[in-house]
Amino acid sequence: MANVDKSGTFTLGGDSIVKRLGYGAMQLAGPGVFGPAKDPQAAVAILREAVASGVNHLDTSDFYGPHVTNQLIRKALHPYADGLVIVTKIGARRGADGSWQPAFSPKELTEAVHDNLRNLGLDVIDVVNLRSMFGIHGPAEGSIEGPLSALAELQRKGLVRHIGLSNVTAAQIEEGRRICEIVCVQNHYNVAHRADDTLIEELARAGIAYVPFFPLGGFTPLQSAGLSDVARRVGATPMQVALAWLLRRARNILLIPGTSSIAHLRENLAAAELDLPEDAVMALDEVGTRTNAAA
Questions:
Q1: Angle of CA points 3, 4, 6, to nearest 5°
Q2: pLDDT value at residue 136
Q3: For a pLDDT cut of 90, what percent of the chain falls above it?
Q4: Catalytic amino acids?
Q5: Which of 82-91, 154-163, 202-211, 279-288 has the lowest average pLDDT?
Q6: Which domains does the chain have, with CATH numbers?
Q7: Rg of the chain on CA atoms, in Å
Q8: DSSP label at 270?
Q9: Which of 27, 104, 182, 242 is 20–30 Å from 154 (CA)?
C-alpha cells in the first residue's frame, strides 16, 4: 500500500496540517458528476484505502451528485479520524438536467453550508471554498464581496473553520483577503495548463495554499509526448510524473487527484515517492511552455 508521507505537509490557517497529496471525491458521483455512484461499495473502499494510505486532506462538495460524495464520505469514514481535514465548496447548484448554476445569494450559501454539515455529519466544516461562478469553465472578473461576506458571517457563527476561494482571478483573491483570511485557492492548473504560474508564487509568499483542480487534465486526460518520454525514463506512469512535477513545482501546492478506481488511486498516491531528476523537471517545464505558446 502506498503511503503519502513523502509528499510533505502544509498548514492551512495555522492549525490544520495536511499531507500535500490528498484525494478529491468528485469522480465518485455518477457520469458528469451527477447522480449516484456506479458502485457505492467500491466508492466506500476507495475512500477507506485513501485514508489508510495516509491521506488526511479530502476535497468534496455537496453539489457533487448532488449530495452523493458527501454521503459516501460519511458512510465510509464517520466518525472521522483525528487530523482528517475535509474541504468542501459552495457557490453552485445543479439543475434537474445536471447543469451547473450559480448559487451566490446569502440564503443559498447558508443552505449549502448546512447541507454539507448534515450530509458529512459535522458540526463545523474545516474549510469551505467559495466557488466563483462568473465564468463556469474558468475564472472571470466580478466582485465576490457579497457572497464572501455571507460566508465570513457563517464562519463567525462557528459553522466554518477556514475559508478558501475557487475558480478566481488575482483581483478576486485580493478583494477576498480584505474581507477575511483566505487559506487556499483552488484553480485549474497542471503541467500543461500553466496560466497561474505567477499567482502560485504570490500565494506562496503569503502562506496561502494553491490547490490545482484537474491536476491530471480532468475530463480530458493529459496527453503529451514530453510527459510520456519522462515517464519512460524514470519508470513511472505519465500521471505519476505529472503529480510528482506538481509536488516539485512549489511547496504551497496541495494535490487532490480524484479517481473512482482503486488501482488508479494506488498509482496516484505512489507519486509521493517519485523523485524526479533535474533534467526530467526541466523537460516537464518545457511541456507547459510549449502549450502556453501554442495557446
A1: 105
A2: 84
A3: 90
A4: 64
A5: 279-288
A6: 4-294 (3.20.20.100)
A7: 18
A8: G
A9: 27
